[in-house]
Amino acid sequence: MNAFQSCQKDLGNYTYTNFDSLKISGIDTAYLAYNQKTFQIRPNLALISGEKVDPSNYTYEWYTINPSSAILNAEKKKVLGNNLVLDTVISLSPAQYLLHLRVTSKSDKTITEFVTKLSVTSELGNGWLVLNDIDGKSRLDMLNYNLTTLKYDPYQDILKNFARIDISGSPKFVIFFNDRDAVTSKYANRVYVGTDKTTLSFNNQENTWTDFRNLKKEIFRTTPTDYYAEVIQPMGRGGGSAYILDSEGVLMHQNVTQNMVYGATINRLNGGVRLNISKFIAVNFGANTAYAVVFDQKNQRFLVHNSTNYTLLIPGSSDPEIFRPDDMKMELVYMERVLTATNQFYALLKSPANNRLRLFRFTHQGAIFNPLAADDIDNPYGMESAEHIAADPTFGYIYYTIGSKVYQYDPFNKKHSLAIDLGARRISKVKFQKLVYNTGNSRYNEFAKKLIVCTYDPAAPNTSGKMDFYDISLSGAPKLSESYSGFGKIVDVSYRE
Asked: Residue 258 in 3-state DSSP?
């Protein structure tokens, strides 16, 4: 048995001398435990000579040490039990620990200690969160990444089975990001599940689903009964900086570190009334300072939120001859921050007079937009009627769907092409997953490059849902690399990192 065992005498001041007399056996060299699940170890005690001992003559302490914690406090050492047999429910964060069993003789205070390895994970750890529409109701499924098999295990209806709740309303979105609680100031991995009746906020730090609350409790103003978020757009970094556009048309920003919380209306100019902004909120994803571009639908202009301002700014242009962001005279169809080598904003607008499309690409310096292009789009496939749009972070292509077909638009060569034909199946979602903070993980980086296409059979929408992943190349059609089935009509997906 390759583990660490020593026998020592407790002298009160914790200066120990070796005294090998007690032998602990029946403990493996390593264990895998699941957070919030029962965990047991049944060791045996005997003297080295083989003589049996009376367990009641000893006291016991099972405890874990987190070697990655630099602080000697309760988070570094945690006691799991005080009996010879360890029988407990694990409530440790997923990580690698050293598990100690300390046995102390009641008669002479001799200490014998056994150390083994404990890897804590969760039955639902990291993986794909899949929000389904089942006859107009919401169901959250999960493809949980199995650390042993290196494959995804499917779990259905995790809110009902793990949180013991039924969420009301038709599904709108699911999103995971690193949050900072405005009440406790603690950082936590949080999952938001939104419907047209409510939005639930889950503290998923321990990979569990039992710590949740209504979004209303995070909003520092009075809200109606059926209050929910229309859009949640995180900044994509640790610290909880995010934007919410809610069911009352209020745009809010939270950055607890800078004492800014959800509640106050920021979609207004200084001293002005609340503005009707589009649901497309493009943030400077991954930046340390909050920055968002929004679109004023009535006045057909771009507006900017920067840092901790409580109002929006009217942006200028470094080249007004290419475009004037304060006076577009067009309707916004789609907008996103695209994480290509040159991080830039894409904004697709439509002329109300003739449905002609124009794609604006730009970077920014504060409230000044630097135009990269303002191109009219020849439109052979009816792009103005696109049901879903997503921008590729690697090559900068735009993918859009009409019916059962996925089209690709290359904005640099101004070319459309049919990318994927799914026959009789309907498309319910396309996206590229943005990584929240785990950008150093090679597996995560690989799937962040893939085009996600979710489809269903209209004849059996509740059981025919699929989530397919496509590899994108600089030339040629996307290639199917992975496919997962067993869902309903998929409305949204997000990765719990």
From this structure: helix
Contact present, 109 and 10 (Cβ < 8 Å): yes
Cross-strand pairs, 455: 427, 466
**Residue 256: exposure state from Cβ atoms within 10 A (0-12, 13-18, ≥19):** buried
Contact 223, 247 (CB under 8 A): no
Q: Say which residue the tokens 């804590």 belong to.
A: 120
Mean pLDDT per 10-residue segment, the chain (497 residues): 49 38 94 88 92 94 82 70 96 86 95 94 88 98 91 94 92 94 88 98 89 96 97 83 97 93 96 96 93 98 96 98 96 97 96 95 97 95 96 97 97 96 98 88 94 98 98 94 98 97
Spell 48-69 as b/e; 16+ CB within 10 A means b: eeeeebeeeebebbbbbbbeee
Closest C-alpha among 460, 479, 483 to residue 143: 483
Please state the φ and ψ torsions of residue 360, each to the nearest 5 degrees: -105, 130
Instruction: Kindly provide the b/e burial profile for residues 367-398, where b requires at least 16 CB atoms within 10 angstroms of the residue's own CB.
Output: bebebbbbeebeeeeebbebebbbbbbbbbbb
CB atoms within 10 A of CB 343: 15
| C-alpha dist (Å) from residue 314 to 42, 251, 294, 295, 421 | 68, 16, 10, 10, 42
Helix, strand or coil, per DSSP, at residue 85: coil
Cβ neighbours, 10 Å, residue 236? 21
CB 301 within 8 A of CB 354: no
Nearest to 487 by CA among 457, 464, 454: 464
135: left (phi over 0), alpha (psi -120 to 50) or beta: left
Q: Which residues pair with 203 in a beta bridge?
A: 190
- C-alpha span between 464 and 428 (Å, rounded): 12
Residue 67, phi then psi, degrees to nearest 5: -65, -25
Q: What is the pTM of this model?
A: 0.81
Q: Which two tokens stand for residue 335?
A: 């907008």
The three-point CA angle 409-410-416 to 5° equals 45
Closest by Cα among 76, 189, 221, 59 to 124: 189
Integer CA distances (angstroms), 389 to 82, 348, 371, 394, in order: 57, 10, 22, 16
